[in-house]
Amino acid sequence: MQPLEAGEPRTIGAYRLLGRLGAGGMGRVYLGRSAGGRTVAVKIVHPHFASDEEFRARFRREVEAARRVGGEWTAPVLDADPDAPVPWVATGYVAGPSLDRAVASHGPLPQACVRAVGAGLARALVAVHGLGLVHRDVKPSNVMLTLDGPRLIDFGIARATDGTASLTSTGVSIGSPGYMSPEQILGKGVTAAADVFSLGAVLAFAASGRPPFTGDNSATLLYKVVHEPPELGAIEPGQLRELVAACLAKTAADRPEPRALADALGGALGAPGWLPAPLVEEASRAAVALLDLEAGPAGGLAGAGAGAGAGSADPWPVAAASREFPSGPVPFTASSYGSPAAGGFGPADASYGAGPYGSPGESAAGSGPGAAAQPRTAPGDPAAGHRVSVSAAGRRFSCTLVLAAAAVLAVLSGGLYGTGLLPGQGDGDRNLADGAARPSASASAPAPAGSAGPGATPPKGTRADVPKELTGTWKGTVTTARLGVATEFEITIRSGRVGEVVGRDKSVLDVLGTDCGGDWKLASATDRSLVLDTSGNTNPAPGICSGGSADERFTLNENGTLHYKSGDGPAGNPEGDLTRSP
């Protein structure tokens, strides 16, 4: 994401802009936030299109069509103003790496992951086609990978299949070279089968790391799509390759229906482990990165999160060639207007060596309703006070992952409000497991209860074993000191002596299916308290689980509950009262 430049709008409609995500042949995409705290992608068209009545008619129709698109695997259209001086549309922001960036950074996806991506996208197309719409630009940069499944985005070019041909200007081709269907290239009638062809090309890219049609320029690509068989040799022989080949049939009638394709792929969408661990971490960091963004009084980023200042991090590492716009989760359609000689197919496609966006183009100065516009409550904002908790035993999950899981659950239930996750609602001194600077253990960790420094007298009641009153299974809700994320915690404590394993926690995060549980050794004890040590455990999933702590404190309260306070900074220092299970 790029900081806003002089002359760019700071507010569009109800949304205060935080930064620029990208630009395309038709306009720019900004990251925005509503007055209620919802994060959105706001797309505005280039000002010179606003005076084109034919364009306005098409944009209005596209927005009306996109509003009808919903479902589990798409990003919703939340707000729009086709009649504004500069038309704009706001969609739900999808936090996570795009498929093209994921493959560029980590290589081809495992087959199980490819099948899950294909099944999710096929189900998205079932919903889109069921409304009589065709997406027309299914490509890797329009596929986002999130913790709970893929998302198909950018319905700015989805159009009703009936009565829209008159809105296509001479010399305009909608789609991306290498991912367009033969009939789309030849200017024949485009049906839902065109999206299936594009989906096949996307799956070939995901499975092999390269598009099924390659070339040095768009003309070569288009010729190969129409006349030559796809290059699928890098995909392991078997059902997946057969399904991809079926999708890439030259004749539209020979391609499978999306519903049949989803059933055949049968991906375990949203199930634990559907994404490889490196992409889980990227998707998690992307969700957490949103929490650090805060708009200044006049829009744009404020504080340390602005631009590339100290403490900021690019949540989606990508190849150097495409770092100009490292976000871009809701890109504008790649179509461009004018004669064929003026470009015809918009920005260069990644299949012949360029990034997904063109240059920013001319400034949007004066566009939008202006900085003086007053924010209003955005559609879809949940009521204030809504709270989200994560079902997990919270000791050893990195705070980054717990926050990301909370973000996923919050999105499913309407937003990130009232959870303590938004900027200004929690501790500004973040200490996450993503490599942020943190005090050394020697400088920050308090001395364990019951321990004594050199020459000190041991506290009264110090003992070398676990008091009987503290044994048993204890459960309760704990809350991180940083950002206030609530999680469910459970630990079983048994008798034992200093240095022995006396506890085991249950730490399976439902959203990720990763078990971060470990052994807890007794470090010290008094008649009413324990200090347990988890720092010696092998981390089962670095980046997902934290490394443990030598200062996990349990103190018996007067009412019989057990107060737990963790010294594990990367886990967010969770704390809370636990109740003994019968």
Structure description:
The chain is of the alpha+beta class and 582 residues long. Among the domains are: 99-265, Transferase(Phosphotransferase) domain 1 (Transferase(Phosphotransferase), domain 1); 389-580, no CATH class. The protein has helices spanning 47-50, 53-68, 99-106, 111-130, 182-185, 192-208, 218-227, 239-247, 258-265, 277-291, 399-413, 441-444, and strands at 11-12, 15-23, 27-34, 39-45, 77-81, 88-92, 133-134, 143-146, 149-152, 159-160, 389-390, 472-480, 486-493, 501-505, 508-509, 514-515, 519-525, 529-533, 552-556, 562-566, 574-580. The strands form five sheets. Strands 12-13-14-17-18-19-20-21 form an eight-stranded antiparallel beta barrel. A six-stranded antiparallel sheet has the order 1-2-3-4-6-5. Strands 7-10 form a two-stranded antiparallel ribbon. β1 and β2 form a beta hairpin. α4 (111-130) packs antiparallel against α6 (192-208), α4 (111-130) packs antiparallel against α9 (258-265) and α6 runs antiparallel to α8 (239-247). The longest helix is centred in the N-terminal third of the chain and has 20 residues, at 111-130. The chain is elongated. It starts with 10 loop residues before the first strand and ends with a strand.
